């Protein structure tokens, strides 16, 4: 039998709820990464030990994504997301309030494991909702994430400016965000309940196998995009100050500008996909991002460097959402919704691979060669996307008129 249709109103509520979930995750993650120096000082983490702490989070997030791939064969992604997002928020609060380095390590481990499950399940729902709508909406969810990141980074700046303790910064914020995460989970929209009930009764391993080699181009695009992103987040301030001779105050601006242009690009990106197609948008994004790295590498001064980081935000912002959408669409067409979830979870691992590789790669090249030359490496990697652009397809070509067309879905 065909699973019941979901009314358009439920889809709209589900879309708004998922956007809020992306926003909460963006704020929480920004609050963690922007206060790493304060975390290091609070728990007396040495400079030699800090990289191990930082690397453990994305490694464990990758583990969480792998676990989620298996978990959603039995449990709807909406239930996973509803369960883990409050835990991520509480883990952030614990990072700022526990009493020892060992306890902080445990809190970061919990954060890493659950954030991997969160990222995977959140993007699974995004891909599923886009399929239900019949038009591109995935970039809008990631725009909400970018907005959350801006808010989180602003709160972190205020905490540092007013010299608030981590507990005083994280505690009230989590007291708002964790209940909000629980509340919005009531309106998450999943695919058809009947299809899910059939999955729950199916024996383990019944899902059609998904060949990883077919996803490899998209996995590479994901990793290269995050190498570019981590280059900006970890090296933009140092590059502007040490290479381009900016003031310390001016050096804080490139990442903020990057975040704002990422938000703006994602806010209008879905319109571009509907008008020109995903392939054209991805190609344009790759070219603009590569141009941004080229401008940064050749910049004669800090303001030219700032212009390069602005271009980077506008270019890189479209790649990750469209990569998730393309992987989910391909797997769904080949094997159905379960395979789409598997594809998203596997692709999500390369988010953390790129994050782990990007900063050390640029740092090593900068020390051994030059930081200007190091910027050309992520530029070349981003350009590889052009070779795989056809893998992104064009969703609106499948749905004809591009109007919203609610499909089989269910309230999770």
TrEMBL record:
One of its GO terms (molecular function) is transmembrane transporter activity. Residues 215-412 form the Major facilitator superfamily (MFS) profile domain. Gene3D superfamilies: MFS general substrate transporter like domains. Coiled coil: none annotated. CDD domains: MFS_MosC_like. Keywords: Membrane, Transmembrane, Transmembrane helix. GO terms for cellular component: plasma membrane. It comes from the Bacteria. The chain crosses the membrane at residues 16-36, 48-68, 80-98, 104-125, 137-160, 166-189, 210-228, 255-273, 280-299, 311-332, 344-363, 369-389. It is a multi-pass membrane protein. InterPro entries: MFS (IPR011701), MFS_dom (IPR020846), MFS_trans_sf (IPR036259), MFS_Transporter (IPR051788). Its main location: membrane. It is found in: Cell membrane. It holds the Pfam family MFS_1. This is MFS transporter. The lineage of its organism: Bacteria, Bacillati, Actinomycetota, Actinomycetes, Kitasatosporales.
């Amino acid at each position: 039998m065909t699973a019941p249709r979901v009314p358009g109103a439920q889809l709209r509520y589900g879309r708004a709820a998922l956007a809020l979930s992306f926003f909460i995750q963006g704020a929480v993650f920004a609050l963690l990464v922007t206060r790493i120096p304060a975390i290091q000082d609070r728990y007396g983490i040495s400079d030699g030990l800090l990289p191990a702490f930082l690397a453990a989070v994305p490694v464990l997030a990758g583990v969480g994504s792998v676990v989620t791939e298996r978990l959603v064969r039995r449990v709807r992604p909406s239930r996973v997301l509803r369960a883990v997002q409050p835990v991520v928020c509480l883990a952030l609060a614990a990072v700022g309030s526990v009493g020892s380095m060992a306890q902080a390590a445990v809190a970061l481990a919990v954060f890493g494991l659950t954030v991997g499950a969160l990222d995977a399940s959140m993007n699974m729902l995004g891909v599923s909702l886009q399929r239900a709508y019949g038009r591109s909406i995935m970039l809008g969810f990631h725009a909400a994430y970018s907005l959350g990141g801006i808010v989180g980074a602003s709160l972190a700046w205020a905490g540092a400016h007013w010299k608030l303790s981590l507990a005083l910064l994280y505690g009230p914020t989590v007291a708002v965000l964790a209940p909000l995460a629980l509340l919005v989970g009531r309106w998450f929209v999943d695919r058809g309940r009947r299809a899910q009930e059939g999955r729950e009764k199916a024996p383990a391993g019944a899902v059609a196998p998904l060949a990883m080699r077919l996803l490899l181009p998209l996995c590479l695009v994901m990793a290269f995009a995050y190498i570019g992103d981590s280059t900006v987040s970890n090296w933009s301030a140092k590059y502007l100050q040490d290479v381009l001779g900016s003031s310390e105050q001016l050096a804080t601006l490139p990442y903020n500008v990057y975040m704002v242009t990422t938000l703006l690009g994602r806010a209008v990106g879905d319109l571009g996909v509907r008008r020109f197609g995903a392939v054209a948008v991805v190609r344009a994004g790759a070219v603009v991002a590569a141009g941004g790295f080229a401008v940064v590498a050749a910049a004669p001064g800090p303001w030219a460097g700032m212009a390069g980081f602005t271009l980077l935000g506008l270019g890189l912002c479209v790649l990750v959402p469209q990569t998730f959408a393309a992987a989910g669409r391909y797997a769904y067409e080949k094997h159905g919704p379960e395979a789409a979830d598997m594809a998203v979870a596997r692709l999500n691992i390369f988010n953390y691979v790129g994050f782990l590789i990007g900063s050390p790669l640029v740092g090593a090249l900068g020390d051994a060669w030059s930081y200007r030359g190091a910027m050309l490496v992520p530029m070349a990697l981003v350009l590889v996307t052009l070779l795989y652009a056809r893998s992104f397809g064009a969703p609106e070509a499948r749905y004809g008129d591009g109007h919203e067309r609610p499909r089989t879905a269910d309230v999770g």
